[in-house]
Fold:
Amino acid sequence: MNKISIIGAGMTGATTAHWLAERELADLVLVDVVEGMPQGKALDMAEAMPIVGKDVEVVGSNDYAATKNSDIIIITAGLPRKPGMSRDDLLKTNAEIVGKAATETLKYSPDAMFIVLTNPLDTMAYLTMKMTKLPRSRVIGQAGVLDSARMRAFVAMETGVSVENIQCYVLGGHGDEMVPLTRMSNIAGIPLRDYLPADKLDAIVARTRKGGGEIVNLLKTGSAFYAPSAACAQMAEAILKDRHLIVPCAASMEGEYGLKDMFFGVPVMLGSNGMEKIIEYKLDADEKAAFDKSATAVKETHDALKSLVKI
Structure:
């Protein structure tokens, strides 16, 4: 059985474990600094396995040693956003948490792939790669899978069409400057631009960009966890099953789309080697302008990180 360790056993981390246990993909370890919390959630989940008929071992721990020999490390640890906070407001605190999680888990699982979920997402993935000194294929940020799913959900709500017939592609930084590609997104092959009136499509794009904030404002004491954790599970499954699945993820850029030395949301092929390649779309002028604007915003957060942490 494969092994996946999830660092951070809050709502997102525990729900990631739930989705993964249901898929019977791997034995699971939940790690958190709060004593008893990961152990309690893991035990509760283990006791659910006979009911759902899955032979998965679920363990909770406060010690990184429990993560030894993991195939995948998923980092969800960090402070969630509160109403009025941007993802970037979390930078300093979460950089300390993610940096420690990355370096400590690498000691016990030197061959692991890393999936990073903590905000600000692109910058935390960049930090993880720099702190671990891993090749870019082994560190991926979860962002575009979630943002694209949100857009697909909103299109389904508007049109009444099955989500399975809806394909959406959201690139760029995981923030308010993300780039929903309405030209490539489609319903059963029909471009969204041809299927929906412009005002309806514009409203969907705006709601997608603010999708996380909408949930933060509704919950008031937390942030989204069902969809982000499902996205992590999909990425882990693509890697463990060597699916060569193409999904938007935050990846380390080495010249693709004209970007270097930063993580950014682009279409990525996921397989047993992690991030196997980046797919480059031919962007039109409007898409390129939005893409560059998002890249500038992400680069600023990367630069802010470099002023806080030596990497």
In short: The chain is about 45% helix and 20% strand. The longest strand covers residues 260-271.
